[in-house]
Amino acid sequence: MTDQQDSLTDLRRAIDGIDDEIVARLAVRQGLVERAGRLKRDATAVRAPDRVAAVIRRVRATAERAGADPALVERVYRTMITAFIGLELTATGLRDRPVLAPARPENAGELLTLQRAAYATEARIYGDPGLPAMVQTLDQLAAELATGPGFTATVGTRIVGAVRGRIEGDVLHVGRLTVAPDRQGQGIGTALLAEVEAAAPPGTTKATLFTGHLSVANLRLYERQGYREERRARLTPQVELVHLTKSLPPG
Ligand SMILES: C=C(O[C@@H]1C=C(C(=O)O)C=C[C@H]1O)C(=O)O
């Protein structure tokens, strides 16, 4: 018993020594990861799944040569890299910064949910739960997605904003600019609008969009982005649509 305890003590002392070495090397690794983070612009770049896969392949091969269990080494590394990614996301402030990307057909369901949530505010303003965006079906939304440039703003795995565009001749029709209620007022709508405008093909001379006359936050955003009222049209006795346009730079 005493013998066993003594040898366990010795083994643990040896393990402690190795841990000191590992932690010292982790400190150096942390410095390098933080420097890598400063070179990145969004959360996707921080996560760099291709690089993670390459690191895992490399350390598995290294483990094989060193006589360590590759599966164990992979588990340790995946846990460690997840922790480093967390550190990098916090250090860079990129954790909550939305990532803009082209909308994909498989986003349709989540976009419909987002749209219903975002337009609920509008429905309340106008006292009308039957606004077109509130009663649109999944099929209609999916069809609309296929007709022009659309973008999503994503934080982690959650879509927090979206916009859809449709090109008709030299005009970009911007529609369904939506931001999740808890993420409104953070510049996401502005970023999405700029993204869809930039995606218009060369030769597109103007962008046009509309909103209800009581949607002052929307009107303010559009005016700040250079849109000017062109005309108004009555939609229902309660709602007047304000159509706004903006010239797009040639290119
Ligand atoms: C350090 C980087 O950032 C992240 C952290 C990694 C790591 O800890 O090895 C690998 C890829 C990224 O997920 C990198 O991109 O190289």
TrEMBL record:
A molecular function GO annotation: acyltransferase activity
Keywords, ordered alphabetically: Acyltransferase, Isomerase, Transferase
Annotated Chorismate mutase domain residues: 2-92
Superkingdom field: Bacteria
Domain annotation N-acetyltransferase: ranges: 98-249
Record flagged with keyword Transit peptide: no
Group of enzyme by EC: transferase
This enzyme's EC code(s): 2.3.1.-
InterPro entries in the cross-refs: Acyl_CoA_acyltransferase (IPR016181), Chorismate_II_sf (IPR036263), Chorismate_mutase-related (IPR051331), CM_dom_sf (IPR036979), CM_II_prokaryot (IPR002701), GNAT_dom (IPR000182)
Record's protein name: GNAT family N-acetyltransferase
Organism of origin: Blastococcus goldschmidtiae
